[in-house]
Backbone:
């Protein structure tokens, strides 16, 4: 017929020819057919798999085909299923997509033999070339029955029955028990435990039998099906209370019955615990509207009544007394009862950014010149006492203790502020016999809360060298090429590390996202794991210039995917002490590699039964987008077939088998500089997308799961001790930070329509609230910024409630939560500090340092401290220059705990009702260690006052040293703060070579210790 370009030219010719309109339409149709040919499967029909699958609760024998079968063909004559007893009668059922034919009428634990006859026809006209035989044995299917929910709330609505699940059980016996008032808390505690033996032993004492009956299930054979026990039909269960339901298969004599507990209620509860306040919100579960007049009783662990309250018209009630003693909230109104346990884990909000440091009424920002010291050295503690918004209030005497690594008190002191506003300073000489490990300064603030500052005491040597690693090529190398790494080693004072030993280790692994300009794109085949390896290079010595070249021969020449080669190099001083650095080198196949960007985040699953649009690129190592023709895309289903099993030890649990098969094949072309689009339909389950380049033979792949991983979520929901993770509400603000009097615009996007509660809250209490209807498409609300909100633990919380729906479809009530920090603008209180000093400084001479602070307004005096510390010491712990602005104004941790009953709702259902057959109402010393004599340069000066221009001059007397100094300045006023840093280094000088030996960590302290001595003569470099 010719290629598609020929057809396109013919169609265009026909379009312009005045006598050939019918011909042009014909040719255009032929071209459209040809253009769609890559989407059609051209291969012959094949049987991909024959296995047992669980479909709609029933285990079936299914055959999976490479192509959809012809729906107009009667497929029954092409399937022959037999057992030892002969031919099995029944019909094969074709799936909607035509790729799967299943036989539903199977028996458990039976050997089957299947023959699929040749000439079975596919929808594309191809036929099965030859008979396909298969044999399999179906799984065991034991009779079992259990409750299908660990929820405890039943709504008084149609469809609100107690669900059970069973297989091959004709009937179940269920007894219903109402818990006695005096035993309510004890029974509740037993129910929260996985071990309920005491509950069964004391059932008669703690409960009253109110109803019993046998319920016929009418289950289809060999089918795991659900049924519902209609609670509303039992008058004995109408009285408010907590009920237990105990169930056994009829005629069973097992030791312990299946257990469920429930209350019948429309009262929904949501609790929020602040530092000194407990707020309870009550909503109608069915309508998601506030419930007024609900009586709330707070009970302690013994069941004693602590306090009583009643909800307002907004559905709110608060408690402020003995909050730590409250274990259970009992809510009742008219004939309804709801219980909310406060001793269970709070809602899991780990998906949100919750901050780190807790809010406190007073902040003490503590800093020192470094955080690593040796015994016998002096540490200078500095403290700035401010309120929660960084303002000076007063400066009382503070009680402080210094504790060693064994938490024993080493020194007690009364920390007094100097004449400066809220600035504290204390020098502490670390004893020469001090234990090594983590030490801590603990200070009791005026509000009674502690402030802590940790530092390390160790026998160590400062780093005296720096090590730079760089590749000979700028960015990447091809797999076949050897890799050359340039090494430069120098002492910190500038001399080259001539003759020093270099040791190197290599680690090789896939690099899936190496191109920063193409974020989210995954390159290479994720199953190409054969090159993952670790190996070492031979040691070498640096030359007279402190240089070396590492020649790394390729061991990965056949790689078709990008690789990361990680080099860890250690440069040793002549005494044996190393300085280690790491370098990552990209290995990129010559030419282009296919990149795939999914339309979902790494940690998220795309929705099931949807169409997903993937972005496809062909890129080189520099991120340039290349053209590509005829890329082959295959969507592979990695199908797990789950089978429910039951045992008395584990209850219902799931086993699975796995089969991978292609579900879609297509081709695509990529233009230079452009992204391609690939739209793929997915159902629920695991998939792998593979895209291959026939020209190069390379392939990239991406594995993902569509829909929720339901079995894992189901298992988690069965564990009563697990915190519930709520659905998430997306929140967005219109500004980065707000000033007093501003109005914040909040965008709210919930997962469902419903009623919303918006709160601005601190760790102490709610500060502002509003209710509004929410739409799934998004809603917006204005939040006025109150001038009294002068704190940094402000968060916006949104509670989105979904009402029940029972008419057209059953929708169980639910809640979703949104959380977002509300930042306050404080940039006007930042001091920008600059330091002026020489680039090179001479030892044993004074060093003049000039400080300059910008952002002053002369409304308050400003002061500054200055430290000069050997960079070789700071590098060991990656010590950062102290920053009081960040420390005092950073977001504080969200500390409000939320608990509610929405995770305990029994799902509304329309399962067939079990028929009650009979039954009715019931009858009533550190060892001495060798010490290094290496002197550490660590100077501290301060505080000094800044003049009206924000300037100060400080003179430091430098001792003898080799290396680099970091100058660190901290400036502060009553409510303004800042910091700055700069490095200066000594000129090239000789350095002694320290002979060191390393001690392994002690059993109780994972710290490497170096013992070093100086040689008789220096080793000059």
Residues:
């Amino acid at each position: 017929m010719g290629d598609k370009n020929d057809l396109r030219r013919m169609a265009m010719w026909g379009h312009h020819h005045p006598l050939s309109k019918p011909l042009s339409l014909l040719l255009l149709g032929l071209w459209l057919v040809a253009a769609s040919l890559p989407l059609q499967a051209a291969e012959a029909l094949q049987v991909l798999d024959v296995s047992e699958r669980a479909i709609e609760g029933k285990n079936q024998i299914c055959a999976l085909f490479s192509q959809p079968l012809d729906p107009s063909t009667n497929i029954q004559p092409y399937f022959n299923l037999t057992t030892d007893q002969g031919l099995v009668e029944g019909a094969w059922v074709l799936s909607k997509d035509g790729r799967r034919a299943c036989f539903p009428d199977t028996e458990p634990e039976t050997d089957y033999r299947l023959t699929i006859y040749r000439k079975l026809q596919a929808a594309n006209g191809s036929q099965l070339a030859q008979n396909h035989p298969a044999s399999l044995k179906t799984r065991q299917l034991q009779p079992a029955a259990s409750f299908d929910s660990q929820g405890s709330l039943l709504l008084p609505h149609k469809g609100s029955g107690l669900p059970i699940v069973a297989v091959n059980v004709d009937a179940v016996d269920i007894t219903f028990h109402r818990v006695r008032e005096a035993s309510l808390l004890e029974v509740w505690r037993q129910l929260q435990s996985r071990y309920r033996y005491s509950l069964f032993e004391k059932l008669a004492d703690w409960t009253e039998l109110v109803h019993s009956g046998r319920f016929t299930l009418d289950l289809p054979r060999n089918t795991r099906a659900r049924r519902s026990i209609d609670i509303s039909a039992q008058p004995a269960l109408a009285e408010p209370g907590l009920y237990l339901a105990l169930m056994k298969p009829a005629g069973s004599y097992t030791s312990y019955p299946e257990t469920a507990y429930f209350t019948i209620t429309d009262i929904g509860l949501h609790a929020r615990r602040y530092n000194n306040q407990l707020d309870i919100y009550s909503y109608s579960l069915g309508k998601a509207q506030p419930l007024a007049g609900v009586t709330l009783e707070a009970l302690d662990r013994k069941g004693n009544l602590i306090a009583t309250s009643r909800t307002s018209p907004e559905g709110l009630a608060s408690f402020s007394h003995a909050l730590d003693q409250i274990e259970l909230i009992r809510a009742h109104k008219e004939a309804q009862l709801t219980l909310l346990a406060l001793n269970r884990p709070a809602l899991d909000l780990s998906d949100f950014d919750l901050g780190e440091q807790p809010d406190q009424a007073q902040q003490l920002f503590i800093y020192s010149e470094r955080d690593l010291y040796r015994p016998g050295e002096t540490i200078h503690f500095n403290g700035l006492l401010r309120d929660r918004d960084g303002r000076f209030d007063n400066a009382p005497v503070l009680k402080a203790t210094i504790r060693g690594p064994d938490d024993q008190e080493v020194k007690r002191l009364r920390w007094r502020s100097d004449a400066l506003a809220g600035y504290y300073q204390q020098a502490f000489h670390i004893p020469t016999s001090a234990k090594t490990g983590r030490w801590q300064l603990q200070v009791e603030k005026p509000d009674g809360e502690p402030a802590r500052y940790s530092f390390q005491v160790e026998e160590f040597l400062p780093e005296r060298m720096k090590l730079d690693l760089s590749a000979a090529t700028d960015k990447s190398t091809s797999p076949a090429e050897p890799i050359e790494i340039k090494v430069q080693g120098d002492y910190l004072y500038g001399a080259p590390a001539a003759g020093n030993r270099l040791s190197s280790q290599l680690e090789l692994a896939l690099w899936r996202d190496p191109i920063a300009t193409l974020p989210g794109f995954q390159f290479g085949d994720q199953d190409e794991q054969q090159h993952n390896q670790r190996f070492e290079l031979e040691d070498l010595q640096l030359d007279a210039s402190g240089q070396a070249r590492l020649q790394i021969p390729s061991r990965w020449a056949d790689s078709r995917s990008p690789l990361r080669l990680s080099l860890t190099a250690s440069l040793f001083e002549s005494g044996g002490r190393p300085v280690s650095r790491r370098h990552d080198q990209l290995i990129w196949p010559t030419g282009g590699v296919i990149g795939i960007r999914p339309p979902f985040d790494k940690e998220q699953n795309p929705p099931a039964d949807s169409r997903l649009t993937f972005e496809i690129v062909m890129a080189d190592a520099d991120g340039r987008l290349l053209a590509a023709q005829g890329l082959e895309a295959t969507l592979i289903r990695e199908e797990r077939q789950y089978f429910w099993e039951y045992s008395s030890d584990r209850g219902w649990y799931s086993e699975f088998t796995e089969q991978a098969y292609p579900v879609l094949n297509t081709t695509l072309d990529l233009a230079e500089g452009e992204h391609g689009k690939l739209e793929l339909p997915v159902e629920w389950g695991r998939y792998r997308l593979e895209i291959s380049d026939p020209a190069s033979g390379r392939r990239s792949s991406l594995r993902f799961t569509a829909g929720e991983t339901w079995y894992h979520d189901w298992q988690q929901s069965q564990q009563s001790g697990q915190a519930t993770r709520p659905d998430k509400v997306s929140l967005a603000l219109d500004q980065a930070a707000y000033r007093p009097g501003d109005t914040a615009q909040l965008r709210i996007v919930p997962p469902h329509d419903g009623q919303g509660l918006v709160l601005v809250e601190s760790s102490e209490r709610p500060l502002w609230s509003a209710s509004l209807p929410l739409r799934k498409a998004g809603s917006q609300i204005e939040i006025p910024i109150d001038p009294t909100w002068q704190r940094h633990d402000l968060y916006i919380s949104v509670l989105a409630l979904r009402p029940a729906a029972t008419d057209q479809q059953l929708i169980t009530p639910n809640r979703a939560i949104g959380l977002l920090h509300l930042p306050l603008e404080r940039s006007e209180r930042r001091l920008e500090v600059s330091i002026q000093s020489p680039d090179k400084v001479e030892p044993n001479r004074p060093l003049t340092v000039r400080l300059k602070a910008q952002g002053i307004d002369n409304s308050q005096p400003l002061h500054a401290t200055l430290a000069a510390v050997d960079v070789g010491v700071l590098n060991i712990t990656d010590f950062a220059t102290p920053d009081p602005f960040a420390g005092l104004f950073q977001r504080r941790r969200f500390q409000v705990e939320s608990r509610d009953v929405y995770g305990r709702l029994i799902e509304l259902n329309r399962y067939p009702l079990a028929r009650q057959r009979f039954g009715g109402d019931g009858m009533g010393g550190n060892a001495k260690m060798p010490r290094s004599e290496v002197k550490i340069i660590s100077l501290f000066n301060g505080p000094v006052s800044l003049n009206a221009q924000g300037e100060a001059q400080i003179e430091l007397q430098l001792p003898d040293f080799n290396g680099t100094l970091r100058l660190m300045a901290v400036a502060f006023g009553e409510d303004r703060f800042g910091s700055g840093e700069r490095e200066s280094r000594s000129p090239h000088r000789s350095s002694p070579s320290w002979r060191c030996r390393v001690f392994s960590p002690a059993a109780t302290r994972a710290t490497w210790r170096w013992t070093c001595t100086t040689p008789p003569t220096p080793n000059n470099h």
Remarks:
- The CA atoms of residues 102 and 413 lie 81 Å apart.
